[in-house]
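Most newcomers find our protein records easier to grasp once they have seen one. Sequence and backbone structure share a record, each on its own labelled line. To make this concrete, we reproduce a full record directly below:
***
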Amino acid sequence: MILKIYLENPSPKEIEKVVTVLRDGGTVVYPTDTLYGVGCDALNTRAVEKLCSLKGVDPKKSNLSIICNDLSNISEYAKVDTPIFKMMRRNLPGPFTFILPTTSSLPKIYKNKKTVGIRVPDNNIVREIVKQLGNPVLNMSVKDDSDEIEYTTDPELIHEKWEHVAEIVIDGGTGGIEPSTVVDCTSGEPVIIRQGKGVLNL
């Protein structure tokens, strides 16, 4: 199912449809401020395992990333000291993934790597979904290296590719082509490990 949601003023009724799917352990494709993402309720272990399997991701070897609505309850999911928190606040919402040590509130599947990526995208649609859900959303890009660019930016073509996997594909307009900038904060000092769309303000 493809669902049109407007970025400037997301309809609460449409957001509720998406949240219902996520609460039921479903998978959703949504826009972010970078690439379109595919995700599920980050605290639903079965949904996380299913999505990892679909994307061919081994959670023991890969960093998993979650989308939060803002930084207000970040300490529930990641350990963050004051200087790093202040730097994150300067740069978020924005096109960044900050890698931090996990806390014990995340399901066991995140503990293999002992780290988690934190995203707060500058996109009203996905942040409103997370806010209404009350949990973060596990986030993976819809982009595969073999993909034609249209299959990662055009919602109708994304739907064509993902309709057998995702209960809802949100049409939030044309997607971006550049991924987020990934910043490793696990050693206390921020280190850019992938330069993407975001220019980090230290």
Remarks:
- The longest strand covers residues 96-101.
- The chain has one domain: 9-143+181-194.
- The domain at 9-143+181-194 is CATH 3.90.870.10 (DHBP synthase).
- The CA atoms of residues 32 and 84 lie 23 Å apart.
